[in-house]
Specification:
Chain A is α/β, with parallel strands linked by helices. Chain A has 5 helices and 13 strands. Chain B has 6 helices and 11 strands. Classes of the chains: A alpha/beta, B alpha/beta.
Chain lengths: 221, 227
């Protein structure tokens, strides 16, 4: 890519990426946030906008992390971090919690990913067919079960390898599931045409974004 | 008089056979019946298949059971933890078999077992390596795979309150897999923080009715720690 492309480029920071996802979640949605970067999205949804966060270990109506002197040792999230329960929140067992997921009751799930393909395939649980100890957790249930799946991830790996690809080379989590991707460089919808760019980081041109993307990009119009 | 409360761990563990499938509750340390796992270690049954969401932390509890060579196979969704050293060492050495199951499929397989449903179709895992070798069926335009139920010869469960009929309540996120495993176990053994008199637990608050429970042992250990 041309150096002029990168001179003025200001990638979205992690907080900006999380805030952008949060801004797009309307009041009243039931939402599961995956472990890792997606967890931070909750910090950017104001409490007065009532979005109900679900954690697959049986917590519905999860609130922010507790202050250190107010930890409830029995109240953790799927990342095994201490959390709080909002007024109106409830607990359920694992089969009911996953009935919420697999029964299509969640409006949205936000996951991290290693790769997303232009047909919406997602790979986010193993980077090799021979992973030493593969750990899938609830990712496959969430990807197949939520009404919509958004991915929040960096646009490329640290060495610049594109993560938005024609076909995922890593083991799949789900087929054709991703509806939108938020990266540090762009926001893209996954459509029948493939990836459609709906927003880009300041200073980035469409051509420069394409140069960092394996899959073919489309403009909105 | 029905009294499922037993006075010693040896009584709680009596009769568990070699080769049993043992369902172990908990999500990380929360709701994990550590005293019962220690009881099973003491009891001696071996060549076990264990179903548990995680595969042990450090060298205690489930990790210790595995380290002692007593677990031939583990069925779980997430074998990683803050310190999965025992599992990873055994797995790399080929000394333990691993069946990875998506977490919701794991829970549903046990609920199905408890409900007398031998198998069910699910969309989870379609198009992934989890679907390899499984029956596929299209129902109303969507593809599903067939998953079999997962009954346990034994279920080890942690409750918050129990009475002598085996009615159970749970504490916050400590509920997790416990009620589902209680249903799926042929012999369901419970450790409880509190023993209540019959009728003291509000019937509206009972999460697991005593019909799913065989033995209860009182283990008032306090709060969980260590993930």
């Amino acid at each position: 890519m041309a150096e002029t492309d990168t001179a003025a480029l200001k990638p979205f920071s992690r907080p900006q990426m999380a805030a952008r996802v949060a801004q797009d979640i309307p009041e009243g949605w039931y939402v599961n946030l995956g472990i890792g970067i997606p967890t931070a999205v909750a910090d950017y949804v104001p409490l007065e906008r009532e979005v109900i966060f679900h954690s697959e270990n049986g917590v519905l109506g999860m609130g922010p992390a507790p202050e250190k002197d107010k930890i409830q040792p029995w109240l953790i999230n799927a990342g095994k971090q201490y959390v709080t329960l909002r007024a109106g929140g409830s607990f359920c067992h694992h089969a009911d919690s996953f009935a919420m997921i697999r029964g299509g009751h969640l409006d949205l799930c936000v996951l991290g990913a290693f790769q997303v393909a232009e047909n919406g395939d997602i790979a986010n649980w193993a980077t090799s067919e021979n992973d030493t100890a593969p750990a899938v957790g609830g990712a496959m249930d969430l990807a197949a079960g939520a009404k919509r799946l958004w991915v929040l991830m960096d646009h490329t790996t640290k060495d610049g390898t594109p993560k938005l690809v024609h076909h995922c080379s890593y083991p799949l989590t789900a087929v054709g599931a991703v509806k939108r991707v938020y990266t540090n460089l762009a926001v893209l919808d996954v459509t029948e045409r493939g990836f459609v760019v709906i927003d880009m980081a300041p200073g980035l041109t469409f051509e420069a974004l394409q140069a960092r993307t394996e899959a073919k990009l489309h403009t909105a119009s | 008089m029905i009294n499922k409360i037993v006075q010693t761990m040896a009584d709680a563990m009596a009769g568990i056979k070699d080769g049993s499938t043992v369902l172990i509750g908990g999500f990380g340390a929360v709701g994990q019946p550590n005293a019962l796992i220690d009881g099973l270690i003491e009891q001696g049954a071996t060549n076990l298949t264990v179903a548990c969401n995680n595969a042990g932390v450090g060298h205690v509890g489930l990790a210790r059971l595995m380290e002692l060579g007593r677990v031939a196979r583990i069925i779980c969704s997430f074998p990683r933890s803050s310190d999965p050293v025992v599992f990873e060492t055994l797995y790399r050495a080929g000394k333990i078999a691993l069946e990875i199951v998506p977490q919701g499929t794991l829970a549903e397989r046990m609920r199905a077992a408890g409900a007398g449903v031998p198998a069910f179709f699910t969309a989870t895992g379609v198009g992934t390596k989890m679907a390899v070798g499984k029956e596929h069926r299209e129902i109303d335009g969507r593809t599903y795979i067939l998953e079999k139920s997962l009954p346990g010869d034994v279920a080890l469960v942690e409750a918050w309150e129990a009475d002598r009929w085996g009615n159970l309540t749970f504490k916050e996120a400590g509920r997790n897999f416990n009620p589902v495993m209680a249903m799926a176990g042929t012999l369901t053994i419970v450790q409880t923080q509190h023993v209540r008199a019959l009728g003291e637990i509000n019937p509206d608050h009972v999460v697991t009715p005593g019909i799913f429970v065989d033995r209860v042992v009182h283990v008032p250990y306090g709060d969980p720690s260590g993930f």
